Amino acid sequence: MTPSLILGFVWVLAASLIAVMPRRYHWPGAAVLIAAGVPLIGWIAWQNGVVAGVIALAAGASILRWPVIYLVRWLRGRLAP
Prior knowledge:
The chain is an all-alpha fold. It is 85% helix and 0% strand. It is built from four helices and no strands. The chain has helices at 3-19, 26-48, 50-63, 65-79. The longest helix has 23 residues, at 26-48.
C-alpha cells in the first residue's frame, strides 16, 4: 500500500473523529479536512492512477457532503441570471 493511500485512510479516520465531536467543531474541522484533502487527492491520483483519485474524490465528497451542497447552491446563485 502506498503512503498516499495510508494518509487517505488516516484522513477518513480524522473525518470520523470530527463527526463524533460536538457540532461547534464540525465546520472548522471541515475546513481543515478540505485543506488537507485537496492535495491528498492529487497525490493519490499521481501515485495510484486517475481511477484511485476519482474514488478518493467521491469518498471525500461523500464524507463532506454539506460543504459540497452549500458550494453547489452558492454557484447556482452566482450563475443564475
